[in-house]
Amino acid sequence: MPLNTAALNALPRELASHGSAVNNTVRQLAGAVGTAVIVTIYSTQLTHAMKVSTTSPLATAAGETYFYLFILACITFVLAWFTPKPKKVEIQVS
């Protein structure tokens, strides 16, 4: 929520409705793509676990999927850590 508020506050008032629409659209698309990626990884791992004939292919596939998602989260965290911070603008009152 703070990120959404900061993003919308950066827009001029007349563009706030457009910014909100774009924000909601991107959020929906990112959720759909994220879900598709997770299901694809899980399906691939489950197919592999069933071919290898482990005792519990569902648990094996879920564990490996969570591992890949953890790696993705770590990469995202590192990228976010090195994202440049915006410069503070001082407003002078006269």
Overall form = elongated
Q: Which runs of at least 5 residues are low in confidence (pLDDT < 50)?
A: none
Helix content: over 70%
Distance between the termini: 34 Å
Number of strands: 0
Structural class: mainly alpha
% residues in beta strands: under 5%
Gyration radius, rounded: 21 Å
Total DSSP helices: 3
Average pLDDT for all residues: 88
| Helix-strand pattern | HHH
Number of domains: 1
The biggest beta sheet, please?
A: none
What labels describe this entry?
94 residues, mainly alpha, 3 helices, 74% helix, elongated
Structure summarized in a few sentences:
By secondary structure, the chain is an all-alpha fold. The chain contains 3 helices and no strands.
Question: Could you walk me through the main structural features you see in this protein, from its secondary elements to its overall organization?
Answer:
The protein has 94 residues and is mainly α. The protein has one domain. The chain contains three helices and no strands. It has helices at residues 2-9, 16-52, 57-81. The chain is elongated. The model has no long low-confidence stretch (mean pLDDT 88).
